[in-house]
Structure formats: structure tokens, C-alpha cells
Task: structure prediction
Amino acid sequence: MFITVRFGDHQTAIFNPNCRTYNLLSHIKEKCECNTAVDIELCDPQGNVKFLRDIPDKSASDVLPKRENFILLQVEKTEAGLVKYKPLIQDKDVLTDEFLKRLSKKGRQNRPASRGKRQSSAKRSPSKESKKELKVELATRQSRRESPNRTGNTKKTPRGKKS
Result:
């Protein structure tokens, strides 16, 4: 599986999206010789921004369709806090009025609601209620293991072996 990124003066590069979006963007930045201080993003040939920077821990292959072409964008933040996207390609066939118009609209609006907040459960700490539930469940499991067996012994026996 691969994706093609178009940039510069009719240049293309092929990338493997089977990695986190953060790693993919870093690799694209390196291979396309972008300044390390510049933030980049991808969009499809119609000007639909993919918002990969908002989901750095998600697999890029889950977000980007395989064997598709993408345009490399530079992300610029305005003084008003808005995001502006600048295509890093000089291909006049791609930079149509419709493409640029759609890209400028994406810069003014917020990211899609489906990609609003990061949903990584590994980064969130459990609530007090879920901690209590977990403790109760662990205590229940422990008491089941130590309950007397048929002979009245409370001796623990390894699973699969009979006493």
C-alpha cells in the first residue's frame, strides 16, 4: 500500500502510510526537503484538507485512501489565530481557481467535528467511579480463586491440575 505526494515543480514521491500520521508527516517533510520549522499538511487534488496534524497517533492508513494522490501544503497561522494553507506545488493544472477557493475555505473554518478531540484512552486517566468498579471486580476475582473447593480446602491449585 502506498500514497503519492505531489510537491514542487512537477515532483512526486511515494510513501508508505502504514504508520502513525505524525511519523508520515515527518518523513514527508524530510523527503520533500521542507524546512524543519514549517508545519505541513496534505490535501486531495480537489482541495480537501486531511487534517493529519490533528490526529498524530492515528494510523495514516486508516485516514488516507491507498494509492491516492495528495498535494503537499504548508500550514501558516495568522495573527488572528486562523490557519492558512499554502500549496507547495507549482503545477498550474492542480492550482485551479476551484482548488484554491476550497483550500482557502478550509483555512477559515475549524477542523471537522469527527476529528475534534483526541480519543486516545491510553492518555486519559480513569475516573473515580471506574477505579472503584475495577477494585470491586479484582476483589471478586480474588475471592473466587480463594474460595473453598469441593473438599473444603482453600489451597490454590494451578489451572488444569487437580488436587
Summary: The beta strands are 3-7, 11-15, 39-43, 69-77, 83-87. Helices lie at 21-31, 60-63, 97-108, 128-146. Residues 113-123 have pLDDT under 50 and may be disordered.
